[in-house]
Amino acid sequence: MAWAQVAQGLKIARVNAAQAGKIIKAADGLMTDVKGLALAVTAADCLPIYFYDPVKQVIGLAHAGWRGLAKNFPARLIKKLAGKYKSDIKQIKVFVGPHIKSCHFEVRPDVAAKFRDYPKHLRKRPSKIFIDLAGVVKEQLVIAGLKPENFKVFGGCTYDNKNYFSFRRDQGKTVKAMAAFIVLC
Ligand SMILES: [Zn+2]
Question: How close is the Cα of 98 to the center of ligand 1, in Å?
C-alpha cells in the first residue's frame, strides 16, 4: 500500500512497486497501474475521489478539500492519469466516497467567491452559503471529458452520520479520519 501524505495541495504522484509501504510526501493524488498495490488517502469531510480505467487497468485516488476543488484538482488528476497511461477519459469511472455534503458545508463569503464559476452548486440560505462539493467535482470532470454516467457519489454526509469521522463536527485536538483505498486485482 502507498499512502498519500495529504497536504491540501496539488501534487499527484505516479506510484510503482518500489513505493509499496511508503508515505508519498506532500501528495494529495496517487495513480498506478501496478496490480496488488493499494493506493490510500485519509479524509474526514474532504472528498476521497476514486478513479478507475477498466480498459487500461489503471487506478487513481485523490483527497480533495475546497482548496483543491477551487484549483480544479480532480480534473488535473484525470488529465494526468490519461496522459501518463494513455487512458481515454471517456472510459474512466469515478466515485466520490463519504464527505461533507451541502447540508453542512457552510462557507464564508471569501470561500464561496472562489466558486463563482459554479453557481449551480452554491446553496444560498438566509445569511448563509453552502457548497455542494461533489457537484463541483462532477462539473469539473465532465468539462475534462468524463461521461456523466461514469460519475457516482456516496449518498450520506460525514457530518450527519456518526459512523464517520467529521473534522467539522468532532473538532477534536487529534484529527481522526477515514482511510480510503483502491487496488487493482
Ligand atoms: Zn450533512
Answer: 11
Distance from the alpha carbon of residue 5 to the mean position of ligand 1, in angstroms: 26
Q: Say how many Å lie between the CA of residue 45 and the centre of ligand 1.
A: 10
Q: What is the pTM of this model?
A: 0.95
- Containing structural domain, residue 8: 2-100+134-182
Q: What CATH number does residue 171 fall under?
A: 3.60.140.10
Q: Which residues pair with 180 in a beta bridge?
A: 41
Question: What are 8-48's pLDDT values in tens digits?
Answer: 899 999 999 999 999 999 999 999 999 999 999 999 999 99
Q: Is residue 128 one of the residues assigned to a domain? A: no
Q: Where are the beta strands (DSSP E) in the chain?
A: 2-4, 11-14, 23-24, 27-32, 39-43, 47-53, 58-64, 93-96, 106-107, 122-125, 128-131, 151-153, 178-182
Question: Is residue 149 situated within a structural domain?
Answer: yes
Distance from Cα 14 to the centre of ligand 1, integer Å: 33
CA of 132 to the centre of ligand 1 (A): 11
Query: Considering its fold, how many domains does the chain have in total?
Result: 1
